[in-house]
From TrEMBL:
The keyword Lipid biosynthesis applies. It comes from Populus tomentosa. GO terms for molecular function: (2E,6E)-farnesyl diphosphate synthase activity; dimethylallyltranstransferase activity; metal ion binding. PANTHER family: FARNESYL PYROPHOSPHATE SYNTHASE, FARNESYL-PYROPHOSPHATE SYNTHETASE. This is Uncharacterized protein. InterPro entries: FPS1-like, Polyprenyl_synt.
């Protein structure tokens, strides 16, 4: 590492952390809205997913109450209530906006990096994945 620019290592760390966050947010959305054959259990398991956090940020008091009453319950009716609330809040659209902005931010960060080919390859593997 003698003679290397250490700023490049900091930059790649920041890029990879941003990619990791994007991957997790994407995973939370796929867990709820993805293929019904492989859908997860974040809602019934009371996980602190991006969807519930974002939902709590943007919903009014009445909807927060509905979320509190139904989130983390094993009954499919409660899960359906939460998913209906997510749809009312257009969380898929909120995610699409987040995804687009994050992708553009990552591409901009990657463009000037010496390891851009590898970083672009990583991003291509996760961008708009379906599983």
């Amino acid at each position: 590492m003698a003679g290397e620019n250490l700023d490049n290592h900091v930059d790649v760390k920041n890029i990879l952390l941003e990619m990791g966050t994007y991957f997790q947010v994407q995973d939370d959305c796929l867990d709820c809205f993805g293929d019904p054959e492989i859908i997860g259990t974040d809602i019934e398991d009371f996980k602190c997913s991006w969807l519930v956090v974002k939902g709590m940020e943007i919903c009014n008091e009445e909807k927060k109450k509905l979320l509190h009453e139904n989130y983390g319950k094993p009954d499919p009716a409660n899960e359906a209530q939460v998913k209906a609330l997510y749809n009312d809040l257009n969380l898929q659209g909120v995610f699409a906006d987040y995804e687009s902005k994050t992708y553009e931010k990552l591409i901009t960060s990657i463009e000037d990096h010496p390891s851009k080919a590898v970083l672009k390859s990583f991003l291509a593997k996760i961008y708009k994945r379906q599983k």
